[in-house]
Amino acid sequence: MNIVEIENLTYSYPAASEPTLKNISLQIPQGDFLAVVGNNGCGKSTLCKVLNGLIPHFITGSFSGSVKVGGLDTVHTDVGTLARKVGYVYQDFENQIVRPTVLDDASYACLNYAIPDYAARGLEALSLCGLQEKKSDYIWQLSGGQTHLLALAGAVALRPDILILDEPIAQLDPRHADHIYEILRELNEKHGKTIIVIEHHTDYIANYCKNVLLLKDGSFAWQLPTQEALQRVEELQACNIFPPQITLAAYRMKQAGLLSPHAPLPTTIETGKKIFDKLAYAGTQTRPQAESSDEEDIIARFHSVFASYKTIHGKDGHIFEGLDLEIKRGDKIAVIGSNGAGKTTLMKLMIGLMKPSWGNITIFGGNIRRQKGTNGAKQEAFSEDSSQTIFPDKVAVPYWSPEELSRMISLVYQNPEEMFIQDSIQADIAYAMKMRGVADYENRTAELLERFRLTELKERDGRLLSGGQMRRASLAIGIALHPEILLLDEPTANLDIATRKEIMRTLNDIKHITKTVIIATHDMQLVCEWAQRIVVLCRGKVIADGTRDEIFGNAAVIAQAGIRPPEIFSMGRALHQRALCYTVDEFLENFAEVQNEQ
């Protein structure tokens, strides 16, 4: 039985030059766990918004064709009725949280429908989503992963037949990502929900989804069982979809004659063990060594830093408790850790958006906090801990105001749309330079537009660009003032493989502009391909700081911080305990020979 039936669907947004969805016909069976894939801008989110009636009831445009969900025609059924058939968790799920406490929010939709047992339904949804113990908590006490689960619980409470999640794990650490998908699996297998996810992470698709739907430039390409779909390596890559690393490694080995041309491509570690079992480990990779540096190379230092926030009860909620960290000129650092570990807080402290409650943070020899008791004029700052070595004998150092810090350090936010305050990206890039009286800022703006391939888009509002275009524009804004230190918060979140690679190229392109770059990310492939140094945060402290071998080769650190190396690393370790392979190329380099038969 099909729960979704679409015939000849074509849809265009208002004033669009061409349709976003083009003559789509497809069916989704009841009880499916379906991944919708395709490059950025191919119409994935638009298709899903058709299913819950947002299109065409709230988002107008040109709509033709037939869409039926659970037997209801979406054009002739109001959104309120469809919401009880189709639950939706959006990519910006925080906007779905509207009430102050967890149970209040989970039951709010049911209350709106005047369902008598709304509170019981909210409790049931929280139990299904693993949040029953948080029912009395305030929403701002939740971690990012828990907030995502609460948004899901709010949708589940209405007991819809279909649940749609747009990029459900884009901003989550591996531990929380696994938890989300385990809950979705239980809702699918034990409670009969039809699950639809818009997903770029094909390793999760391989482990959880039953079928895959591919969209190409707004058109329906195919709908196949997951194992068969992920075998189509060339077609997926042509659509900017990155197959599982294990699948790609086997595909390239087939091309090199190391595997039988008739062997199926593995998609998970378990299937990979069977396919790769005859390969020998060569152990040929060279290991990058951590670079030593002199004291004068240290440009930023955290010493015994405590940072906290006030809770609703007036108590302090601690983020950092005695954080120590040194950053050297030229560092390419990836800061990793679970949601709530303090990655974004670290960056906010560096640019002065937050102040430590105790301890010292110095940037280029100046303190970010004014000495206590000053009258507001520019003053010298002193160490509060006479035992520390940063300022022996309490030597006076300059105090940097937030405005001065902004000339030295630039932060590119996790949500790039927060970087756009003008009506065009040309004006956004020029804004900071113009306000600070930078000479010849017009030519500098034109150069940045050209460098980041934005010239043709310069008159567009940044908030209306595609995900990749917004990322490029936000980077251009970030480096406009030639910052000494560039901070990037989750720069590859929600991006397809082509756009992700484009961001990687951009990071390499700006090496001569900004020498010191710090990235906070859950993207372990980005960490392993780009970072020269990895800092692991956990429970308010740095628990590890070193090369990728020192971090990912330490099982205790991985378990404590809830991080996970790329899947190809785990595949290599499953084949040989000494294998440390972080990319497909490294895996091929080290497993490039077939074992001699004894």
Describe the structure concisely.
The chain is α/β, with parallel strands linked by helices and 598 residues long. Helix 6 packs across helix 7 (144-156) and helix 16 crosses helix 17 (441-451).
Offer a few descriptive terms.
598 residues, alpha/beta, six-stranded mixed β-sheet, 24 strands, globular
How many strands? Answer: 24
Average pLDDT, to the nearest integer? 87
Largest sheet, described in full? Answer: 6 strands, mixed
Question: Which structural class matches the secondary elements?
Answer: alpha/beta
**Overall outline:** globular
Strand content: 15-25%
Head-to-tail CA distance between termini: 53 Å
Arrangement of strands in the largest sheet: 6-7-8-3-9-10
Low-pLDDT stretches are 373-395
Kindly provide the radius of gyration, computed on alpha-carbon positions and rounded to a whole number of angstroms: 26 Å
Helical region count? 24
| Helix content estimate | 25-40%
Structure explained in plain terms:
This protein has 598 residues and is of the alpha/beta class. The protein contains 24 helices and 24 strands. The strands form six sheets. It has a six-stranded mixed beta sheet with strand order 6-7-8-3-9-10, sandwiched between helices. A hairpin with a 5-residue loop joins strand 12 and strand 13. The chain is globular and about 70 Å long. The relative contact order is 0.10.
